[in-house]
Specification:
Layout: H1 2-24, H2 29-50, H3 58-84, H4 87-108, H5 115-131, H6 148-168, H7 177-196, H8 210-231, H9 236-243, H10 247-258, H11 264-282
């Protein structure tokens, strides 16, 4: 069940990232993160209100608050990377790094994946160089010759990995309360930024961008809820790795909608990354 839920997480995360990445190409990243997280916060309130069986401890709320801060920074880095770089490069690199973090955490604290899973980690790490080796061309994608998208992807991956670890430590009976604390924390902090930093309020989103932001918020709330459920039914090293398959849906959408093209080395890198993450899951 944990692996199945992890796959659902991967699909919903990847779809939300596609919407968020497109929105970040039209609207400043802070607006995208703020509005999508605010929408997610409202949705989670409704879910928590319907769930009478959850009994969160104080530690669960603290975990949610910390996860909210880490997630806010990570999503901002990720969306910025998607905005100035190629979805087909930024998303897989972020996923590989975010897969390694929970595996490393699980190994450190007693989980023992098989040699097959560890071999998958090695493949995933090695694929990063190929994925980022050369950019292709697309009439719809931004042109960036700097290394900024790569560093943004690496930073986002570390943050997402830490986010997975934090959520995995929430209590089994906490329900969606950690997610509620997480999203309200990030939305509140960003509201403070908008209130006291006039520059942040520049270029508010147009009506055309709002559906993209709403899509990012909806799929974000769903993905995080599914991950909480998945982390309670399986090993973090397995669930985190399967959840990190989310670039598959992002890249498929990017190819279908944006007509992104890939250099041969990048295609090989994507294939190796996919094999690596699958081996992690199978192990």
């Amino acid at each position: 069940m944990g692996v199945l839920l992890g796959l659902v997480v991967a699909v919903t995360y990847g779809t939300g990232d596609f919407f968020g990445g497109l929105a970040a190409r039209r609207v400043p990243v802070l607006w995208v993160v703020f509005l999508s997280h605010a929408l997610a916060a409202v949705l989670v309130v409704a879910i928590v209100g319907l769930d009478r069986s959850s009994h969160p401890a104080r530690e669960d709320i603290v975990i949610g608050v910390i996860a909210g801060i880490v997630g806010m920074v990570s999503v901002a880095l990720f969306y910025r990377g998607l905005a100035i770089g190629r979805m087909g490069m930024v998303a897989p690199i972020t996923a590989v790094v975010s897969a390694i973090v929970p595996v490393a955490w699980g190994l450190t604290f007693g989980e023992r994946p098989s040699a097959l899973a560890l071999f998958g980690v090695a493949l995933a790490v090695g694929s990063v160089a190929l994925i980022s080796s050369e950019a292709g061309d697309s009439p719809h994608e931004p042109v960036s010759r700097s290394r900024a998208p790569l560093f943004l992807a690496l930073g986002a991956g570390l943050g997402f990995g830490a986010f997975f670890v934090l959520y995995s430590n929430a209590g089994a009976h906490s329900g969606m309360w950690p997610l509620l604390a997480s999203r309200w924390t990030s939305a509140t902090l960003l509201a403070v930024v908008f209130a006291f930093v006039p520059r942040a309020r520049r270029d508010p989103p147009s009506r055309k961008a709002l559906p993209l932001i709403a899509g990012a918020g909806l799929f974000d709330a769903a993905a995080n809820g599914f991950f909480l459920a998945a982390a309670r039914t399986g090993l973090l090293s397995i669930v985190g790795a399967v959840s990190s398959l989310y670039p598959a849906s992002t890249v498929l959408l990017a190819r279908g909608v944006l007509h992104e093209r890939f250099h041969r080395a990048q295609i090989i890198g994507l294939a190796i990354a996919a094999v690596g993450v699958v081996l992690i899951a199978l192990g």
